[in-house]
Amino acid sequence: MTVPKKLVLIGNGMAGVRAIEHLLKLAPDTYEITIFGAEPHPNYNRIMLSTVLAGSTELKDIIINDWDWYKDNNITLHTNQAIKKIDTQRKVVITESGMEASYDEVVIATGSKPFMLPIPGADKEGVIAFRDIQDCEKMFSAAKSYKKATVIGAGLLGLEAARGLLNLGMEVTVIHKHPYIMERQLDEAASLMLRKELESQGMKFLLSKHSASITGRGRVKELQFTDGSHLATDLIVMAVGIRPNVDLAKSSGIDYNNGILVDDFMNTNIPHVSALGECVEHRGVAYGLVAPLYEQGAVLAKRLAGVETAGYAGSVTSTKLKVSGVDVFSAGRFVETEGSRALRIQDDMAGTYKKIVIRNGKLIGAVLFGDTADGASLFASIKSGESIEGREKELLLGISSDLLGKSGGSASRLENMPDDEIVCGCNGVTKGAIGDAVLNKGCNTFGELKACTKASASCGGCKADVEGLLHFYAGDAVGESAKEGICGCTSLSRDEIVEQIQSMRLMTVKEVMHVLDWNNKEGCSKCRPSLNYYLGMLFPEDYVDEKESRFTNERYHANIQKDGTYSVVPRIYGGVTTPADLIKIASVAEKFNVPLVKFTGGQRLDLFGVKKEDLPKMWEELEMASGHAYGKTLRTVKTCVGNTFCRFGTQDAMAMGIKMEKAFERLNAPAKFKLAVSGCPRNCAEATIKDLGVVAIDGAWEIHVGGNAGVKVRACDLLTTVKTEEEVMEWTSAYLQYYRETGQWNERTAHWIDRVGLDTVKKALEKQEDRLALVERVQKALSVTTDPWKEIVDNDELRKNFEPIAGPLPV
Ligand SMILES: Cc1cc2nc3c(=O)[nH]c(=O)nc-3n(C[C@H](O)[C@H](O)[C@H](O)COP(=O)(O)OP(=O)(O)OC[C@H]3O[C@@H](n4cnc5c(N)ncnc54)[C@H](O)[C@@H]3O)c2cc1C
Ligand SMILES: NC(=O)c1ccc[n+]([C@@H]2O[C@H](COP(=O)([O-])OP(=O)(O)OC[C@H]3O[C@@H](n4cnc5c(N)ncnc54)[C@H](O)[C@@H]3O)[C@@H](O)[C@H]2O)c1
Ligand code: SF4
Ligand code: FES
């Protein structure tokens, strides 16, 4: 029997222990393993400290390998024992307390040290980093006795610390030296959106500020800045970056630069001394995220096990901010430079932003805000280096997964992925582990899979892939997914929330968040507007709309354009106008120097390039109804000329359209909706790609629903055929109200119909008594609507909101 060799691991952290886990699988009996850790704990998931601080996870739940694991695997663990030096001649490691252990192979995995600004007073009580369990405990304890917290550094760590401190009830100010936050991961547009969102959650920011000194007797009292200003504070968390821990390299004659220098197989310059993790520098790069460190661990484990392996060639990284209710994703080289170009799309209404950066026909970087669902597939495309030529726009518009599927991406990408490839970077979960959990451990819902493997339990960036693999392995056996909340602030679904609001008669957004125990007390850009909508839908006569829960366009009743100007769109019912109205529009456009007047696809005139301060004056002169070209409400009713002039027309499409537009203008809905009426089956008004389209046939009207001509075209389904205009109105009213009552906020009818099913909708509307009850409710909702511009024009206080203010564009 061969005697096992002695392997010593220095650093009981994420990278080192991960490599040992791998090694145990490859060569369980080759080494007698000893681990030294400076911390008093078994191996834990450092990433999850942010969620622990935020209160969504408990410390006991972040242990990766408990004490028994070490025993079960014959590993000798020395906690609270920092290694001071490696005597590479004698092949022994020496602890600070003088203990020695000999080795045949030694692995250094000592991680990083948080960088502490070397400013006077940085050693005072109450000035801490955020790196380990001890720091977390210090924050918990500070929050019990003190009120004001300051975080220096608005990077990933600083913002996660700040969110956690807010959750602990502290007032939090984040100091950043750059004019915009998370500049290492985001471009300016996404950064601005993120800041606005975090500000709305209660975080305060001081930007372009440089810390000079910390004052206070014993404990911190004030942070002084180089510009002479200062900030009173009881706690300072420094989150201004990390530095690879090269102490052992220094004391033991091992080559280092920024980090301990390693080759592609994790060898240092000294034989039998390897290193990996945040403490190393590989090909000039020191990584600060776990995914690359796990890749390094896999290579090292194979080398130590004597298994042939390709070397580690470096990693492209992606990050996701772990702040509840905020979805931010960044990957690769997200800033365009010479030779690369960027495509971007920003939707202020939905609060989303997406940017992709392309070089030589390949995707090299991406930034997502608000909706990060495409993160995993974009990241896969960046990593694969495949050509995306001709598919750039589809990728940007979010229909990439389908297209990638055809070209070796998404579905087939997951299928072809090797078993040992890591799917969840944060928790090091491989495709094989997911397959094992589904096929052998009975996990057939996303929730079970998450609980069993920890995949998707940290930043959530891998969710799409984990779900994809669940479907791949479980096929039709996929169970009802564990309940997902409407956003990260709650685990309640839309239906549960609506039901509880109704049964408890909760009347404000704050009340809902409080009573239903939101884990993020301020809510986020997803839940606040949706709650505002649900409350208005349920209690149209009693609920007071909360303007602050609406997006910019709805607050200013105009569409903000990319240059910060707005547009003015008067309502033109059914697309039918008069010379007098046209003259009025033309003269207002001339008087206010409107740079562009355009016919819209919805048969009306759009005046572009309007300054915010001119909006009330223009509407005052126009004296026309708002066309609601913004907001989640009726846009237009497109009509053809119908039988009034057209020789094919069988019905009066214009009159029908005008009647519908007058009836439903200003009606709030889960998402915007468009209607159309065509006077005969030739369908010149393209009614069958609208949210609801009416098409005249001989002696009757067909009502079509659920159409959309957006990114993905969806043709309508026929809902019913009726004889009279009154019946058209009855069915349309009932249909719209049913959508209002069952749709999820921000869900267009096309998606809604696909979700609830056409048959469900038909069933809900088939009985006239049900239709009439719905009609009555929609009438109630309509009865309290007012024209926003009429109100603003006549109200000096409201007009003040449009006066010019200095500062960045609202988002
Ligand atoms: C709050 C927080 C949130 C994070 N979130 C994310 C995230 O969402 N996604 C992501 O990818 N990354 C995240 N990271 C970074 C991630 O945690 C690190 O990349 C990872 O932990 C590095 O692993 P490591 O093993 O190299 O270092 P560590 O995990 O730091 O382990 C090193 C260990 O070595 C010990 N040690 C040091 N010197 C000695 C010595 N001389 N003798 C013995 N032991 C020693 C240390 O005490 C430590 O326990 C986060 C980090 C923090 C602090
Ligand atoms: N969600 C995640 O992936 C996650 C979360 C937490 C931490 N981490 C990792 O942990 C490590 C540490 O995070 P980090 O945010 O400290 O590092 P970082 O280097 O990414 O960010 C530090 C930030 O502090 C700012 N800064 C530097 N000096 C400053 C000063 N004097 N005043 C004000 N601001 C200053 C920088 O401009 C930078 O934006 C990183 O490797 C990070 O990737 C990742
Ligand atoms: S849809 Fe029919 S009625 Fe309307 S314009 Fe076209 S052909 Fe004429
Ligand atoms: S990649 Fe962060 S949870 Fe999976």
From TrEMBL:
Residues 6-282 form the FAD/NAD(P)-binding domain. InterPro entries: BFD-like_2Fe2S-bd_dom, BFD-like_2Fe2S-bd_dom_sf, FAD/NAD-bd_sf, FAD/NAD-binding_dom, FAD/NAD-linked_Rdtase_dimer_sf, NasD-like, NiRdtase/SiRdtase_haem-b_fer, Nit/Sulf_reduc_fer-like_dom_sf. Residues 631-768 form the Nitrite/sulphite reductase 4Fe-4S domain. [4Fe-4S] cluster binds at residues 640, 646, 680, 684. Residues 318-385 form the NADH-rubredoxin oxidoreductase C-terminal domain. Its cofactor is [4Fe-4S] cluster; FAD; [2Fe-2S] cluster; siroheme. GO terms for molecular function: 2 iron, 2 sulfur cluster binding; 4 iron, 4 sulfur cluster binding; flavin adenine dinucleotide binding; heme binding; metal ion binding; NADP binding; nitrite reductase activity. Binds 1 [4Fe-4S] cluster per subunit. Binds 1 siroheme per subunit. Keywords: 2Fe-2S, 4Fe-4S, FAD, Flavoprotein, Heme, Iron, Iron-sulfur, Metal-binding, Nitrate assimilation, Oxidoreductase. GO terms for biological process: nitrate assimilation. Pathway: Nitrogen metabolism; nitrate reduction (assimilation). Residues 422-470, 486-535 form the BFD-like [2Fe-2S]-binding domain. Residues 561-624 form the Nitrite/Sulfite reductase ferredoxin-like domain. Siroheme binds at residue 684. PANTHER family: NITRITE REDUCTASE (NADH) LARGE SUBUNIT. Belongs to the nitrite and sulfite reductase 4Fe-4S domain family. This is Nitrite reductase (NADH) large subunit. It comes from Paenibacillus algorifonticola.
